[in-house]
Amino acid sequence: MADLDFFFDPGCPWAWVTSRWVTEVSALRKFEVSWKFISLSMINTDKGYKPGDDYHKMIHTFGLQALRVASAARADAGNDAVAKFYTAIGTTVHVEKIREGFDTDPHKFLSDMLSRHSLPTVWADSLNDETHTPVIRYETDLALSRTGKDVGTPILTFKPGQPDEGSFFGPVISKSPRGDEALKLWDAVETIATTSGVAELKRSLRSPLDFS
């Protein structure tokens, strides 16, 4: 059983930074992470986009297409394949800022990205394969059932399936800590998430994103 469920949308830069913190801790503590899907397109389509918000709608549409590819990767080669796909697309889009064509020719964009990272390019053929959509919808609904609605990405579930299971939206961090600082943050967030009665801890001020 995994030590953590991590629900992500590939288009979200904040989820990407948090995911790098999680991978750092999983390597240091030998934790197992189950990489799961949450679609910002589905969430925002359900509640309705603001008029004229074409930018986020475009990003979220690409995120849903990328999640179908991630679902194909999982069907082909399991959880580790999802981790490799997320690392590849996150590095490409968020760190290297290679985005040309992702909205006009997403199949080529994804195929090229997979090729650069030595992953099967055939996965890209699933970007519009609706057979993967129910899986993404199920995991999106699962994530929201654990936190409640009116949240975004990422969503983390600590100790899934255990009596002290706990889920939260976030942490939303602008830079991924490393080493002892990463472990310190993990222990603090896990304690909050698995402590009965804690519902929310939040501030709206954010530092600029740092992908280093």
Question: What keywords describe this structure?
Answer:
single chain
User: Please, how many helices?
Assistant: 7
- Give the class from helix and strand content and strand pairing: alpha+beta
Radius of gyration: 17 Å
Look at the structure and give the mean pLDDT.
Answer: 94
Low-confidence stretches: none
- Write out the strand line-up for the largest beta sheet, numbering strands in chain order: 2-1-3-4
What share of the residues lie within helices? 40-55%
Q: How far apart lie the N and C ends? A: 31 Å
Spatial shape: globular
Binned strand content = 5-15%
Largest sheet: 4 strands, mixed
List the helices and strands in order. EHEHHHHHEEH
According to DSSP, the number of beta strands is 4
Task: Itemize the secondary structure elements and their pairings.
Blueprint: E1 4-8, H1 13-29, E2 33-37, H2 40-47, H3 54-77, H4 79-95, H5 106-116, H6 133-147, E3 155-158, E4 166-169, H7 179-193
Helix pairs in contact: 1-7, 2-3, 3-4
Q: How does this structure look, described?
A:
The protein has seven helices and four strands. The longest helix is centred in the first third of the chain and has 24 residues, at 54-77. β1 (4-8), α1 and β2 form a beta-alpha-beta unit. It starts with a strand and ends in a 19-residue tail after the last helix. The mean pLDDT is 94. It has helices at residues 13-29, 40-47, 54-77, 79-95, 106-116, 133-147, 179-193, and strands at 4-8, 33-37, 155-158, 166-169. α2 packs across α3 and α3 packs antiparallel against α4 (79-95). It is an alpha+beta fold and 212 residues long. The chain has a four-stranded mixed sheet with strand order 2-1-3-4, sandwiched between helices. It is globular.
